[in-house]
Amino acid sequence: MAQMNMIEAIKDALRVELKRDPGVLLFGEDVGKVGGVFRATEGLQAEFGEQRVFDTPLAESAIGGLAVGLATQGFRPIAEIQFVGFIFEALDQMFVQAARLRYRSGGRYNAPIVFRTPFGGGVKAAELHTDSLEGLAIQTPGIKVVVPSNPADAKGLMISAIRDNDPVFFMEHLNLYRAFKDEVPEGEYTVPLGKANVVREGKDITIIAYGLMVHTAIKAADELAKNGVSAEVIDLRTLVPLDIDTIVASIQKTNRAIVVQEAQKTSGAAAEIIAQINEKAILHLEAPVLRVAGPDTVYPFALVEDAWLPTPARIVKAVNQTLQF
């Protein structure tokens, strides 16, 4: 297998699908000749032509609208929103038009669209470039939400997302783009949407995370192991659909859990996951399920973001609170 970082794995997935299906189109701001702000599409316009990989005006609402229109005509658009903080201009097209298209048309039309966007902090970027807005998306019926944590999953999930007949909000953490390389299967390779991955087995507590926070959770699990605490770490991979069965199975074994998210604490993915745990596994719990999350403030400027983001130390503290309950 090839060694790739996440950017290279995503580009490989896009190339595989552009080559396989002539209905796949890729567009957004500077994705063509420049290859995107992070070079995720570099070389694809030269390989597949300006009719299939092309630049758009600096207008996110137009990008979203174009994606919806193309989807109704049988294409599979991949629309890049350059940074997650810019999606507000396209929310109507993404969360109202695309997400409701199949329901509104009684199944006559699908919206097989992938909305790609980088998100997340830790890279000292300006605040609108580093938000975590998955909470908005998971509250929107009709749209799937994918957050990979490693290159192999990024490729497999991206190909599954492109082939899906519903719109997918594909969130790529900025801090993972070039963080490390890993083995990635070559050619066509899929990871199913809605299937979590137990990345570390444990018996004392379950740590549930996604995206960059999976790696923060693993670092915390390493620290906990030094004191004899065996933590199981679950990488959710997708927030919608949520693999609650894997979460419940883990809690039936460990009887304790915490949920880690980079986003602000209130009404986010962690809140929904804890609610579902309470509905389906409360009799297996020996302590309340705690959240480790960002504070309920605007994402801060670079000078103080290290103090804002969840850390392994904060996860260890929450785990110890749960174990001592």
UniProtKB/TrEMBL annotation:
Cofactor(s) for this UniProt protein: thiamine diphosphate
InterPro entries assigned to the protein according to its UniProt record, in alphabetical order: THDP-binding, Transketo_C/PFOR_II, Transketolase-like_Pyr-bd, Transketolase_C
Pfam families: Transket_pyr, Transketolase_C
EC number(s) from the headed UniProt entry: 1.2.4.-
SUPFAM superfamilies for the chain: Thiamin diphosphate-binding fold (THDP-binding) (SSF52518), TK C-terminal domain-like (SSF52922)
Keywords carried by this UniProt record: Oxidoreductase, Thiamine pyrophosphate
Taxonomy, superkingdom: Bacteria
Molecular function GO labels: oxidoreductase activity
Domain Transketolase-like pyrimidine-binding: 4-179
Protein name: Alpha-ketoacid dehydrogenase subunit beta
